[in-house]
């Protein structure tokens, strides 16, 4: 059995949400239903001003932080863009 929920939201929030849902090929009602199901399942809600990083990005950043601490895989600093470009052109095999 289906039921109807009426909520109040800013017009721009609704329009932007509809656009994103449409870009994903979904009706906004499917997005709201998925959100409500997750809310019921997890019994939690997250508010964030910052987007969450993907696990892939977290792994890359972790490796980068480790390399920085160990002084590995580091180049530069360069004093100019020309100097950086010269380095890249002479080491292009490393970046292809």
From TrEMBL:
Residues 68-96 are annotated as: Disordered. Transmembrane segments: none annotated. Residues 87-96 have a biased composition (Polar residues). Gene3D superfamilies: Met repressor-like. It comes from the Bacteria. GO terms for biological process: regulation of DNA-templated transcription. InterPro entries: Arc_rbn_hlx_hlx (IPR013321), RelB/DinJ (IPR007337). This is Type II toxin-antitoxin system antitoxin, RelB/DinJ family. It comes from Candidatus Tagabacteria bacterium CG09_land_8_20_14_0_10_41_14.
């Amino acid at each position: 059995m289906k039921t109807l929920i009426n909520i109040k939201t800013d017009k721009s929030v609704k329009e932007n949400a509809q656009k994103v849902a449409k870009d994903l090929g979904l009706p906004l009602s499917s997005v709201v239903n998925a959100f409500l199901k997750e809310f019921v399942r997890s019994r939690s809600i997250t508010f964030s001003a910052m987007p969450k990083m993907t696990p892939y990005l977290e792994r890359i950043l972790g490796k980068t932080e480790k390399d920085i601490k160990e002084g590995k895989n580091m180049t530069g600093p360069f004093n100019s863009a020309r100097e950086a470009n010269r380095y890249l052109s002479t080491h292009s095999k490393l970046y292809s």
